[in-house]
């Protein structure tokens, strides 16, 4: 079950929408916090204790850091110690809940290879939903206080709400405190306009999820489970369907999150910006899961590339080979760390690490070759056909990346990759085995065309909802009804369909 | 200021650095260019730019970058 689309979210959503304007503005933040914690409790039960420890540890540590700074003989060592203790507390939860099983299995394998007759018991705990999201969001607040970008917040409710705000806690976006803190405490009443605009965004997200993602789930499940019976072209179709499914599921969830915020007057940052219009893979990652990319850039990429050891290497390389090479080396070291962590953030497993390394290699190679490629393609850079070809290149690279990401294990991954390049048979029986009938395919083509047109308009800086709002009532409501009824009529639910299981909420 | 604009023009030509005020928000400078820029600034102006100062507000225009350099020099 996907948390953002679950009946529990609907219940919480109804509670907020029903009571928002009735709750006095002075205590509305408390109302949001109670609702957020209630939502988390419904989803994760007693594991809420870990969320509360995270909130409290981050709140207290930030205050302590500020206190140490205010003292005249403030000690940087004490400040750093507080920061490290708080990071360790929160990382310990992440490691125990997400990585313990993976690390234990890996250690046992190494011990067995070394011929040591000993193995650790494999323990696996159920993780609190959204732990990777709220931990990163909480830590970003702590880092910003430590780096004197913001002052520590004295009001516990404000910090608690920032870390646990119910639309964001499951799948992000991972916001910075200065980005959303003011938004969360504006305590606006919703208006007819904010309600309509927000609801449109919510329904659009549900359309993407229920009509497209849930339908593609049939193909994805079949291909990734029974990969051995499919040839290369069908493996590619499966990986392509997974990529589209992931995009529709995750960006659809973001539409619901941002739409919910819009209704109650809280502006939540965007997490996608038409990623498939990217011209290279680096650009893709500035348009897909934007908030995670920014987090890694702000708290890992720049700190690593400007750290003392990397600067030392940089100055040595600079003397020998010049500035261009030394920058590539610094950036390469930081990129490697970023993508290793990015892979691990997505999940504990070798396939996720390989997913990270695959992107590291692509981006690093892209950086090395950029000056040579730019020179050669500069005369075509404004050519529309050339842009489309670049978009296709990015899409294919992303699809291969997602194949690595979603493979059952490393063995399955290599079998699937080798089939891609060695088995080219296309037969009707395999099409049937994919599990979609002709009406399903027609619905997919039509609904994806609608998504494509909307994305194209957004890419051209046309605000689709504002344009629709300018039309007369008949056109406006016809469009709304088409969207609502297409979810009811063509949503992939009922016998034969299984909704997409949580992908990002489980990270 | 002129030295800074020369550095910027060498790293990323074709932008009017006198008037552009959204170098980061407008995605004119990517992460790699920022690293090159920092390396050049540190050599040219003899300052050290810490990672925490790499925020859009410090890098959105040549003037803002120059102000950051002056601030770090005075620290």
List keywords for this structure.
heterodimer; A: 507 residues; mainly alpha; 0% strand; B: 75 residues; Non-ribosomal Peptide Synthetase Peptidyl Carrier Protein, Chain A
Integer average pLDDT of chain A? 89
Mean pLDDT of chain B: 90
| Alpha carbon gyration radius of chain B | 11 Å
What would you report as the Rg of chain A, rounded to the nearest angstrom?
Answer: 24 Å
Name of the CATH superfamily of chain B = ACP-like
Low-confidence segments of chain B, ≥5 residues, pLDDT <50?
Answer: none
Number of domains of chain A: 3
**Percent helix of chain A:** over 70%
If you consult CATH, what is the topology of chain B?
A: Non-ribosomal Peptide Synthetase Peptidyl Carrier Protein, Chain A
Main β-sheet description of chain B: none
Number of beta strands of chain A: 0
Q: What ranges of chain A have pLDDT less than 50 throughout 5 or more consecutive residues?
A: none
Based on Cα principal axes, name the global outline of chain A: globular
Distance between the termini of chain B: 19 Å
Biggest beta sheet summary of chain A: none
* Percentage of residues in strands of chain A: under 5%
Domains of chain B (count): 1
